Predict the structure.
Amino acid sequence: MRGSAVLFKLFAILAVISLLVACQPAAPATQPPAGGATQPPAGETKPVELTFVTWSYGVETIADNIKKFQERYPNIKVTHKDYSWLEYHDTMVAAFTAGNYPDLLYGSDHWLQEWASAGWIVPIEDYCPNVKEYSKELAPYALEGMTYEGKVYGLSYYADTMDFVYNEALLKQAGFDKAPQTWDDVYTMAKALKEKGLQYPILMAWSQKEGAFPEAWTSMVFSQHEGPNALFDADLNPVFNKEGSAAYQIMEWLVKVYKEGLFNPASLTTAEIDQVKAMQAGQAAFTIFPQYNMAEVNKPGSGQYAGQFKIALMPGKSHSTVGYVRFYAMSPAVVEKGQAYIDAACKFLDYFGGKTDGQYIVVKRWAVENGLGFAQLPLYQDPDVIAAFSKWGDVPTIEQQAKLARAKEGLTTWYGAWDVFARAEIHKAILGQTPIMDALNNMANKWLELKGK
């Protein structure tokens, strides 16, 4: 009995040892190279890590969009970093020149020539198969603003127009029941409003430091001109400095309304935020600003005139205006990393700027939740977008203005330097310090000087 018990215990111990050995993972046939990562198991794809850089707007929404994207594509990891809009351009240029490329980033129409010509971003239509289909549904100004030398470099994140806005309540008090159709109409209505006691019926945010100043002025010029080449010809030579040009007509109008006290002189030092507050307070009846401000001026409880601000097509012969676009772009770093990264980047671009399951998911979210404008024309028929935009504007008018909008002319690598010079000349002409034609000729000569460098 005692020997049997010992033998039983021995068998039990051997069984336990065998079980423990069976539970251990098998040793690899070969060791991984020193310092290297092990290969993923067969059938699994190595995760792709993408870097994404934006300016600092709606960062919580961006983070949530990234989270949802990663849930859909768990094998793609996105690392996001943001910079202030005021520092964004210079920060990115410094990174590009140092060779520190993010994979994906925000871009803008007014930087496209600079960035594309330097090779800092790549034409995404060459790598992402859906881009050409998306292009068919875009407002023309937005597609133009993302196209360089015939290639599309972006998918629109946000697009907007410069809009002519009026206070309907003030117009009705002065006996007008329709929006102005021409700049002569604006002048006539402004005179009537002044006679009714409104000191300065026209207000602009035309501080020389205000980014929307040249866009508003250019919108006025576009509205008074039929077709392209309102400022420059096909060879980028100035045409605005001709007697009777649309630019000349607009400058004559501006000088007139300034001299007659219809144009608030504070406009030349006013920033956008103060412009919005002044309109809300009923200090002016007419202005031009980016469309996104409509949600603010018509916000319930924001003042006596909340809900009374309306968009009219830009007054003038063509009703055209400036449209601008901000977009998702891809750097050459993605291409250099190979096809897996290109495929992941295209999935990202489809989700954020294109369609997923047939829907513009992220673009629609920005529109509905934040009131951001968009380039994707089918969204004007979306019930959720219509409901959101109808709270502060007339959707058919917004859509029509988008279709009539044009990208700014002359978006070259030297446009920024010329723009700063032009602002001062426009001020001098309005104030009567420089004759209109002299100011326009000064602007033209500066353009040619910069072009020739």
In short: Confidence is low (pLDDT under 50) at residues 1-44. The CA atoms of residues 176 and 189 lie 8 Å apart.
